[in-house]
Amino acid sequence: MTVYTLSNPHLRMRVSTQGACVLGLEDEHGRPLLRGTNPDASCNPGASCYPGESALFPMVPLANRVAGNRIELWGEAHGLPESPLDPDFFLHGDGWLQPWQRVAGSASSVTLQLTSQCGLFHYLAEIDYRLQGVSLLARISLTHLGEAPCLYGAGFHPFFWRDEQTKIRFLASGVWQEGLEHLPTDWSSRLAPHLDFRQWQRPQGWLNHCYGGWHGTAELVHPTRRQRLKVVSDASFLMLYQPDDASGFVCLEPQSHAANAHHMAGHPGLRLLQRGDTMSIAMTITLMPALIDGCQV
């Protein structure tokens, strides 16, 4: 495992080749924008800082969970691979658990690649992290290498730093709330008050829900810091995750597809790739001016 430190006058970040994980992202004052990790910890499964304890990791070749850990293509059922971190699901795919290789980089950027053959999936993944001004630009591309067509998806799993005053807001047309085995229930365009983030509010308690019809922008504001972050993505789905108010983080996860889309009519957001076909997803995290309408900081 190699860790690369990227920096510019505004931001500093550390990226590990293990899982293509981000181990930290700080502003010019050294304050974490994503949750902090131990600078000396590794991110191997079972180690003191496995990828799920990083600051951000990629989700490839799918995001979240698939019911029964099986998919169906053209009437034929296919079992998904087992995960060393989840006994029931191919959780977030295998990309976050594999060693990646650096193929390009500079003082403020790094590009990593992974070739993986895992069950149905045979793919080349590339992730590019780039600091540009007050923004982190990230992009994942996936190219299918297998002979038979296969369904693909991808996403980013950032853990945003938060305190008890942090508020978030984003616009989405509806939500699949979490059900049994952390899988989504039926779609609803009616948002319960604690799940409606069209206006600024604090995320409260356990949250693990997938929003659809996402506008592509989400924001966080930290009044105690007088700081605001904006997340922008070309994804149409946003996963909101928080274990509890005291966790010190909240996850706003842009995904190319809905959670459990493999078992939904039309496979919303998934891409059926033939050999040589490529899909991509991008995300930008930007440090914004603190004062904004509707939220006094």
From TrEMBL:
SUPFAM superfamilies referenced in this protein's UniProt entry, alphabetically: Galactose mutarotase-like
A Pfam family this chain is assigned to: Aldose_epim
InterPro entries in alphabetical order: Aldose_1/G6P_1-epimerase, Gal_mutarotase_sf_dom, GH-type_carb-bd
CDD domains per the UniProt record, alphabetical: Aldose_epim_Ec_YphB
Gene3D superfamilies, per the entry: 2.70.98.10
Name of the protein described by the UniProt record: Aldose 1-epimerase
Species of provenance: Aeromonas hydrophila
